[in-house]
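Researcher: For the record, we're logging two predictions in this thread. I'll number them. Prediction 1 follows.
Model: Prediction 1, sequence and structure:
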Amino acid sequence: MSITMYAALGVLMMLALMIAMMVGKTSPLVPMLAVPLIGCLIMRANPSEIAEWAMSGMKDQLSTITMFTFAIIFFNIMMDAGVFDTMVSKMTRKATGVLPLCLLTVVATIIGHADGSGATTFLIVIPPFILLYKKMNMRPVVLMGLVALTAGVMNSVPWGGPSGRLAGAFGIDSFAIFQTMLPAFVTGLICCFALAFVFAKLEIRRGAGNTGALESHEELQKTEEEKALLRPQYFWFNVILIFATIAAIFISDLPIYVCFMIACCLALCVNYRGAKLQGERLNAYAPACMSMVSLLLACGVFVGVIGYSPIQPSMLEVIETIIGGASTRHLSGILAYLWPILDALGLDHYACCYSIVPMVQKICSQYLTPLQAAVSYLVPWVSLVFIHPTTPAMYIGLGLTGVSFREHWKFAWKWGLLISWISVTVCILLNIIPI
């Protein structure tokens, strides 16, 4: 196959995945495994090559999978023990309406994303808030959308992954990138608060806020078995354990999955003593864990086939050829508006940071500094990062809220694109991004 054919195959694979997940006729697991397999057959790859690409992609997901497995067990123990029920009832008295709850969601996400990790944000924010949203008769997709959009904007913090990768690629300071794009960062957060207001109004029109009607709903009614699992006597121990775990994630050098392993062990031993009862609880949590683990592994296979096969280098070479012949003066400004769309078509973030964006800067070096090049990519890209089918952390949020990718994409992508373009426009008006 030629380089152009490999590149075209990569775009078609990404489009096929997006279409299959948007149609929603099967589990996301099916297209994530079927599409790369078909791609491998078209490339005439031998079994050893397919195994190598798939294994490389799955290895990249192992820390995320481990973290999610123990985090979901930990938070389910907290839910069964009744910790979040008590916290939610107290928070409901303070968040007295739909609008305060939406605004509180944005604030909690900003705080939760202080360590720059999307996975941590979803794990910290969603478990207590999903109960609040149900109590307020609000759709989980609104919670997922607000958290994803706000976490996306927050992902541009200098200690986050994207800033670090761009700083490394250009040999500049990540804090310099953040300082330069600060107006766009503030604009993005203002947009998130504005969207909280818009979403609240939309939910109120749908009848949200009528908590009285929901109190008797079967989802909020405790069965005798569920009541037997409540541990009110350990409420303060569990609260301290939750905050200690979050603190350890932020301030210790331990990997996040190790923090959740330790927390899970302590929570299980204190709340549910005895091998039989602990085994029953683990069996109860297994379906949620296994469905998400299998999905993340499938995501790893898809990303592995795209990233470790000749597809990604071919896509980069084709893009190099196209960009190399483009008019350089306005290229960075035009690309700033196009990055979110190119990302949706399968343009790899790592390839952009380490290859495409530096290449654009070299082509436009007369008009574009390395700092401006980094900002012109980071500003439009971040707001949509958690609405992309190959972002593993997003599936943690989807699993915790019970929202499908199709629902999430249809609800949030247009708003993410709006934040992206507004932020880019602000940067152009302030001459942060030249055009």
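Researcher: Logged. Prediction 2.
Model: Prediction 2, sequence and structure:
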Amino acid sequence: MAKTAKTIKVEQTGSAIRRHHSQRSTLIGLKLNKIGRTSELPDTPAVRGMIEKVHHLVRIIDEK
């Protein structure tokens, strides 16, 4: 049986305006670019680290 990959759904809640370029790049890496946009990503340590880096700009909606 194949295992289903765990996913995590995040929503951008804060603006990237006046943020450091590394935080803006992290949001782009999370496939987010505007407030209110959502993205479903694989639940990996790398993605979790990116979310932690911009935790004040995003929120986790759902974990599957």
